Amino acid sequence: MERTSSSIDSGIGIRILEGDKCVYVYSNDLWNEDKLIRMAKEASASLKEVPDGKTVYLRPCIEYFSQRYEISPTSVSKASRIDKLRHASETAMNYSSLISQTSASTADIEKDVWIANSDGLYVSDHRCRTRIMFESIASSGNSKETGYMGPGSGEGFEFFERYDLDATAIETARVATTMLEAKPCPSGKMPVVISNGFGGVIFHEACGHALEATSVGIKASCFTDMQGKQIASSIVNAYDDAKIAKEWGSYEVDDEGTPSTTNLLIKDGILNSYLIDKIGSRRMGMPSTGCARRESYLYAPTSRMSNTFIAPGSSTPNEIISDTENGLFCAKMGGGSVDTATGEFNFSVSEAYIIRNGKVCEPVKGATLVGKGNEVLLNIDRVGNDLALSQGMCGSESGSIPVDVGQPTIRVSEITVGGQMSE
Amino acid sequence: MDNQIKVFIDQVFLQAKEAGFSEYEIVYQSDISTSVSVREGKVVQYENSDISSISFRGLYGSQMGYSSTEDFSLDQIPFLIEQAKDNCKILELKEKVTVYEGDPEYPEYNGYSEEIADMGYQELADMALKFERKLLDYDPRIIAVDECATCYSCGEFLMMNSKGLSCSSLDNAFASMIYCRVKDGDDVQTYGKSWAFKKRSEFDIDACVKFVGDHALARIGAAPIPSKKTKIVLDKDAARSLLVSFAKSFSAEAMQKGLSRLTGKLGEQIANEKITIIDEGMIGDSYLNIPFDGEGVCSKRTVVVDHGVFVSPLHNRKTALVDGVQSTGNATRSGGSSLGISPMNFYIEKGNTSLNDLLKQLGNGVYITDVAGLHAGINAVSGDFSLMAEGFVVEDGQVGQPINQITIADNFFDILKKIEVLGDDVNYFDLDASHIQSPSLLIPDVAVSGT
Prior knowledge:
Strand order of the largest sheet of chain A: 13-12-11-16-23-22
Oligomer: heterodimer
Largest interface: A-B, 77 and 77 residues
Largest sheet of chain B: 6 strands, antiparallel
Largest sheet of chain A: 6 strands, mixed
Helix content of chain B: 10-25%
Number of helices of chain A: 9
Shape of chain B: globular
CATH topology of the largest domain in chain B: PmbA/TldD fold
Number of helices of chain B: 9
Strand order of the largest sheet of chain B: 3-2-1-4-5-6
Number of domains of chain A: 3
Order of helices and strands of chain B: HEEEHHEEEHEHHEEEHEEEHEEEHEEE
Shape of chain A: globular
Radius of gyration of chain B: 24 Å
Number of strands of chain A: 24
Structural class of chain A: alpha+beta
Helix content of chain A: 10-25%
CATH superfamily of the largest domain in chain B: PmbA/TldD superfamily
Number of strands of chain B: 19
Number of domains of chain B: 3
Distance between the termini of chain B: 59 Å
Strand content of chain A: 35-45%
């Protein structure tokens, strides 16, 4: 038991909108009313003269509970989390003598949010999330490889209690030891089969970010003015759904007080909807989709993703692989990033295998996939029936927020794979 | 620091003692900032903030517990104390970490520039508007400035403990950043950069416009090249990005945990003899100077790699205790979390070859100007990386066709051994404000993947 910490953060953010212009002031000097009023006045003065004495009547508060947990994490002692973490660490260490190091940790947050605005809106929300992180490191000579999983849930302590952490420990140890034997990945353009779950990071990076009003609203996205047009192959349907019960990326109300929605982004390959917040709504002349999010009062909310995934298709994962003569099978993805103006993305593959004659063969390490979002979506030529979601943190303009990525197994007919080359 | 904070700190110390902590320490941090973003000749966003926090740590029995709060009402103090105490009860660290009594002397340090202390909204807005206008006017192919912002910030840091340590610092700076889109036919490319300044006169708008404009326009027509193993020149910015990603390998914490490939390599040749790596808290008049670390240890100069030999990792007092050495003054402490280690000003010493001569020596190969995806495309433990990159084809020493959508892949520790030539093109006092610096590097046999 090496590290533990506790903190309380609290603060207030005041946002003033005039057309699509925005002023945001924030402070955690909560009890200094004079200072907050002064900051707000200075802020609004930068937009236009504001007459004194305007009164806003707030409607009765609507109470939301984005996460309805059974056991409040703060009601449970830290000590009661240790045994399970320790047991999982031992399980991974016992998996193989090659496992040289493991790390098990858990973190949870309870958050109360109040949102009030000059339209009289007044809402409160209670949010709660729990996450577990497990990493195994396998070593042999100079080589060290890692296996990592970070499951999370929009639940309280009951998620930690219920979760089979030993199975996760074994899975990360398996990946680390497998990758230790892996040869460097070959490079070049090739067909790539991307496994379900965290494989959805491809869609998150390659498409999701470029559908956010943050870039579409100022016509800086490669998907600007593409609504109703084909942006993906016709077998692709994709959602951003903040309403999935107990999911890590879910919420009932967004950080502008708009109720969350199930947003069909792509229907049969056609761009159906963007991710739109209030400012985006003014710029684009379309209603908000209830996706304004932020890490905390340190950031003004903006359009963000929640649980974003490609909907299931009809092929089984086995059919997709056996149908691929030669290529790369990406069993586990790492993270990535995107330039929303050009659509160029990159992401790393943490567990990959060569596909030869329709069969998954030897493991390869160090693979990166690079391409353009608008091209790769059109190149998806198989969509599996095994949809799974996976949890992560997404960093962008309004800070780091919890999101789910997801997809069934898919195949991209051609994509650039970067590796250290075998020969 | 106002009176409310002083009363709060006094109360924390009093209650910590009553709760049975044998040693205790607080860190008070306060940051104010003003930032302005403009687009199409109008201010689109203005932010003003005033944030402060107090972190507490205390020794209870043999363990050091941590907690923090942003709420300075006196009724929050029991939370700080109780949580830290709870944390002590479950920790199982072998080494007994103590708070530091302080050094006899600290270097002269002035991170606060009076000259810019009165920068306000209007001036920042005018500067940003002018910056945007000038970049748009620079060339008709610059079709949009998607982000253009200026920011002034001021931070106060105070550390006090039960052994009488009291050190503080006050810093300010203003910064500008710009990100533009260029278009030629159907080809769209982007480029952006940020700078930090301590004097108004340092912000040379015309020079910044020329820099960003030229770099963005040079990207036009970029395309992938066929995959191959080739010799490359890694530009100082790209080399810096790589060093940032692997700096952690030089921390004693990573080494002690077996999370660094340098574990067990102290005293060995880990790089070729051209490579010397230094960490230094105070370099000359640099704006990046740091007078003391997160435990209050006075800044030092540490030779990390001396002509290829790994001489010393970076330590805080905890890892130094484990290794039986002195701290190198590299402790970091953020919020309610425990101590970490990070470089102060960490750099590869420059060589004496100009960038132009590096490219001439490259002859035929690839000049890599930028790498992306650093948070995902690297294995910090093994040193392997595979990163999206941009750059130019080099033929007969001449920079030619721009390249994008390629990756470069290799191993950081192997690169340290095979670097052939180091550039002279790094200025440790650069205004693009990075605590980690590298000159441009000529490296043979790097895997470039494209078509």
